[in-house]
Structure formats: structure tokens, C-alpha cells
């Protein structure tokens, strides 16, 4: 039973499945029936399914047949009506054909006109399209024509801008035209042409500024000179009316003092003379002298073309080469100041241009690049100045060179370049300047001492007296009371030497100006240089005169008198230095003048020379005397030998009467001469008593009476 039930159940399921498949076949499109049929053949009941399908087909055929039978009469009626309409349709066709023929005949001209209108409309449309295309192409052609004109007029940066607009704005709109393709192919060539031409302009610019660096630097240094003069005027205005004299007033007083006695010094031919000529003229700047537009154009062009780095490297490389050429001094630069001036002008011009480029371009040069160039320039410049300045033997040229270096440093300092090393080098040149001054003053002192007559200065009027007093600080109440004519105790070389010492101090002070030194440093420099002048130059000159072979006793005595008065004048030299430096002598670390020692040493040397000359002279008397020691004549007249000796000593004492007796060293000379005189007198008497008899005693009295008289 269970098997039967199971078989029935399976049969029901199969029947239900077949029914579902049939419904699916009926409702599904024929193209999609494949999967349904596959499910039938996948099972084992396809035979029963075929039976089921045949049964369903038969049922549908019966339904179709029923429906056809139901609608057959209506179909027959429709056919009958359609046959009736056929005749009417033929008539209508004939009428339409006839009407069409008439219409074709009547509308033939209209068709022709319509064809003509059609052609006109087509032409009009073509013309309109052509105009539109031409309007689209005309801006391209105009831009290209504008580009060529800009290229011809060498307006390369606008040409590059035009090329950019042409390439990115206009050509894409008409890119399908053949002439546009030609333009597109020419664009790289045009860019290269613009690039090459702009580079050529840059090369011309670099060559131009290399040639005109001298003029640019000269202009910049004139501007710095004018600014410095203006600053000095502003600084000096508050000092008007102050109690202490300014340096300039001290110079004026000094020039007045030495005007009539000191030899005419060379005129300063340095930088400071230039400003007087063009004080009121407006000096143009670097941008007024140089057209920087080629640099800007070339920089913009290379930036637009994406080659800015290449341009920067090329520019810096070329400028480094030019810097090395500028920094190479000419071999004869040391001969004239113009050689130094041209050298400095070129350096200043180079860095003024670079500073302008630094501040007017975005990164073409940077501060690190400028600093590197300046370090190289500073080292080479200092080395060149050390080498060439060592050849300078003229102190005026060294002073002018110093002024030029200061102006050079001040000019570059305005543009932000560090110049401390230049001022340090000027301190080295200061020592060389002092040496050249010492050499010059050695010749001056030698000329003064050689041309002096070594006799007191006579004055015959009050005017002459005041003139000498104005040249040399001398005070003597007794001399003032004496009537004219009268004489100063010293000779002419005293005021001349005194004024030359002051002129030397003034020359040292001129070098210290604008070196940014403190008053103490200036005072110390002047005192040290003056000490060298006194202890070395003047001392050597005095020693050479004293040791001269043909110098007489009168000259030596006058030298003693002169050095005594010069020694007293040292305190006035101290006051002179204090007035021009504003540094009091009581200040700590202030160097003292060694003039007292110098003049004392010279005086001692003169005294020693007097001693030597007298000793030699008396020895000559003894050696040349022809005295008859064995004579028997008892005359009352003294021997010729003693008479000549006494005459010589009398004339010697006459010379010593000019010496100031209150001087210790002078008294020593007088005492020495008296002792020497007595020595030889005693020797003479000794010989008389040894070789003569007692009756010669009256001769002794005669000689001693003459000695007592002397």
C-alpha cells in the first residue's frame, strides 16, 4: 500500500511539474524556451511530458477551430465590402493622377525657382560658414602678424607673451587647418630665436657694464662724498660757539703760524677736491646710467621658457669672470692716484650693479652669492693695496690714497657691504705713512739745519719781534724791555724746527680723519709718531750736524742754546696735541712726548764735541809750539807760546759768554774749559821752572797777570 501511495504521490508531483512547464512554455518567448526544455530532458518523464504536450496542443486546436467558425461570416462580409470599394478607389486614383499631372505641369517653374532658391540658400550657408571660419582664423593671423612685428622690432618679451597667447588661446580653435599646423611647427623655432636674441642682448649688456663700471663707480663714490660732506656740515653746526676749538680751527691757527716760516707743502690732490666742483650738481644713480631692461627681459623670457636656472647660472658665471678681471690691478697702479681711483671705481661699479640686480630681481642673485663675491673682492683688493702701497714713497700720495680708500669703504658700506677689514688695513698703511713722513721730515730738518747761520735772530722793529714770537713760544721779560735793535738768543732753525714739528703733527692728524677712531686712539697715534720724529729723525739730524767735521765752536754753542729753548717748547707741543685731539694729558695711558730727552741728548753731544775740539786744539798748540827751553835770555816778555794759548782761550771764553749761566750743563762746560786752561798753564809753568833759573820768575808773574786779566 505504501508503495502505491508513494507512486501516486510521485505521479502527482510529476503531473504538477509538467503543468507548470507547459504554462511556462505558453507564456515565455520562444527565444527563452531552451532552459525550460532542458529541465524536461534532464528528468526521466519526458515521455509522459510529450503526451501531456500533445494533449494540450489538441485542446488549443479545438479552441481555434471554434473561434474561426464564430467569426467566418464577418470575414466574408468584409471581403464583399472591400470589392465594392475597389472601383471607387480606381476612380480616385485616376483623379489623383490627373491632378498630379496638372500640378506637375503648373509647378514646373516653381520647382525651378525652388531649386535656384535652394542653391542660393546653400551658397548663403556656405558663405556664412566661411565668414565664421575666417572670423575665427583672423585673430590667429593677426596675432601671428603681431608676433612677427615684435620680433622685427626686438620686443622679445612681448613677442613671447604673444606667442603664449597664440599657442594656448587661438591656435586650439583652428587646429584642424593646415596653416595652423605650420604655425604650430614654427613655435619651437620662434622660442629658440627669442631665447637666442635675448641672450645676445644680455651679452651686450654684460659687455656694456664691464666697460662702464668705472663711470658707475665714480658716480656712486661722488654720491657718497656728497652725503659725507652733508653729514659733516650737520655734525659741525651744533659745535658753533663751543668753548673748545674744533680741529678745523686748530688747523687754521696752525696754518697761520707756519705760513711765513715753513716750506710750502704740496697741495692735496685727493678726493676732497672733487666735491667743490660739483657740489650743487645732482649726481645720477646707477639706474640712470645703465639700462637694466635687457637683464629683466632675458630673465622673464627664460622664466617663461622654463630655463630660469640656466639663465641664473650663466649670469653668475659671467659676472664672476668679470669680477676677477675687475679685481686685477694694473701693474703701474702705484704710480699715480688716478690708477687707484680707476681701480676702486671699477670695483664699486661692479658691486653697485650687483646690488641693484639683487633688489630689483627675484632671485637672479642672492645675498649668499653677493657675500661670496665680496669676500673674494675684499681679499684680492687688500692684497693688491698692500703690494702697491708699499711702493709709495710720497706721503701726500699715501694720504690721498687713504682718503680714497675711506671713500671707497664708505661707498660700499652704504650698499650694505662689510668694510671693517679695509679700515684694519688702513691702520697698516698708517705705519707706512708715518715712515714716509719721517723720511720727508728728515730732509726738511736737514735743509733747515744746513741753511741756518747759527747766530741769534736780530729784530729791528716791534713787527718783526711779534712775528718771531708768533712763530715760536718765547717769553723773556728782560728782552722785551730792551730797545730795538735787539736779538733773540736762538737762531732761525728754532722756530722753523718747532713749526715743522707742528706741521708733522698736523699731517699725522690728517691721516687719522674718517678712520672711525676714538680721540684717545688718535692722540696715541699722534704722540707715538711725534716721538719717533723727535727721538729718531730730529735727533739724527742734530747728531749729524754736531758730528760734522767743519763745524765751529760758535755753531756748537748756538746748538746748545737752541736745543735748550726747543726743550722748553715741548710743553707747548703737548698743549697743541691736546687742543687738536681733545684728550687731556692727565688721561690714563696717554703717551708722553720724549722731546726733553732728545734735546738733552743733543746738547750733551754738543758739549762732548766742544770738549773734544778744545782738547784737540790745545794739543795742536803744544805740538806746534817751537819753544826754546834752554834759552839764557831773561827778558821780561812772556813766551809767544803762552801768549797764543791765552789769546785762544780768551776768544773761547768770548763765545761762552752767550751761554745761559743758569743751565747746569753749560756751567759744566765753562768749568771744564777753566780747568783745562789751568791744567795747561800749570804744565807750562812747570816746564819753565824745571828748565830755567829763578830769575825767570818775573816771566811767571807776567803770564799769571795776563791769565788773571783773562
UniProtKB/TrEMBL annotation:
Function per UniProt: Component of the exocyst complex involved in the docking of exocytic vesicles with fusion sites on the plasma membrane.
Signal sequence residues: none
Region entry Disordered, spans: 257-280
Entry protein name: Exocyst complex component
Keyword DNA repair: no
Gene3D superfamilies, per the entry: Dsl1p vesicle tethering complex, Tip20p subunit, domain D, Exocyst complex subunit Sec15 C-terminal domain, N-terminal subdomain
Gene Ontology CC annotations of this record: exocyst; membrane
Organism: Bos indicus x Bos taurus
Domain Exocyst complex subunit EXOC6/Sec15 C-terminal: 421-663
TM helices/strands, residue ranges: 669-691
Family designation: Belongs to the SEC15 family.
Pfam families in UniProt: EXOC6_Sec15_N, Sec15_C
Any Gene Ontology biological process: vesicle tethering involved in exocytosis
Entry annotated with the keyword Coiled coil: yes
Segments forming domain Exocyst complex component EXOC6/Sec15 N-terminal: 52-221
Alphabetic keyword roster: Coiled coil, Exocytosis, Membrane, Transmembrane, Transmembrane helix, Transport
